[in-house]
Design a protein that fits this description.
Blueprint: H1 7-20, H2 26-36, H3 39-43, E1 45-47, E2 56-61, E3 70-74, E4 77-79, H4 82-91, E5 97-102, H5 110-115, H6 130-161, H7 165-181
Parallel strand pairs: 1-5, 2-5
Antiparallel strand pairs: 2-3, 3-4
Helix pairs in contact: 1-2, 6-7
Protein name: UPF0302 protein ACFQU8_13610
Family: Belongs to the UPF0302 family.
Pfam families: IDEAL, UPF0302
């Protein structure tokens, strides 16, 4: 299990982030500074990827990012108005808040990685493409085929060892059937 990120680590990261990146919306700076100065709120903040899946999360972008400047997600509602998000943050300081930051080389930034947690709201198949599913299906089918083939061949060998013609014929038919359907 992933260890929780300390409030001090979150605070240090936000301070570093604000000193190194210019944000697309100045209100985003205000929100992050507000979070910095409220211990209870900071303890309920979690940095994640894909905050759009979280029940309450926002995405903040620096000028070096191609992402939308600001988005706040609360359940099924989405707004790009930082003032509405700020109001919600002030009124719900004890509710978990998930933040995704979008900036240049975010995936390679060790400081960001240190405060990131796994997003518990990502769908199970979020990172699986249709191509991956197809490959997995083919592997599964091949594995089942190989197992059935091995089992039939073992049963044929047993029937031969025991000179049991009826079982031998039964397993040979099974082998032909398997080869004609999956072979």
């Amino acid at each position: 299990m992933q260890s929780p990120v300390s409030v001090q680590d979150k605070k240090s990261f936000i301070e570093w982030f604000l000193s190194h990146y210019q944000l697309k919306k100045r209100e985003s700076v205000w929100i992050l500074n507000y979070i910095l100065n409220h211990q209870t709120l900071l303890s309920n903040v979690h940095f994640v990827r894909e905050a759009k899946f979280c029940p309450r999360g926002f995405i903040i972008s620096s000028t070096s990012s191609t992402e939308t400047a600001f988005r706040f997600h609360k359940k099924q509602l989405v707004t790009t108005d930082p003032e509405k998000a700020f109001h919600d943050i002030r009124m719900n300081q004890n509710t978990p808040l998930y933040i995704q930051l979008s900036f240049q080389n975010e995936n390679q930034n060790a400081l960001y990685a240190a405060v990131l947690i796994d997003n518990p709201f990502l769908p199970d198949d979020y990172f699986i493409t249709a191509e991956d599913q197809e490959r997995a299906q083919k592997i599964l089918e091949k594995t089942i085929y190989d197992y059935q083939l091995k089992t039939i061949q073992e049963n044929i060998n047993k029937a031969l060892d025991k000179r049991h013609k009826q079982n031998f014929n039964k397993w040979v038919k099974q082998l032909h059937k398997l080869e004609n359907t999956d072979g």
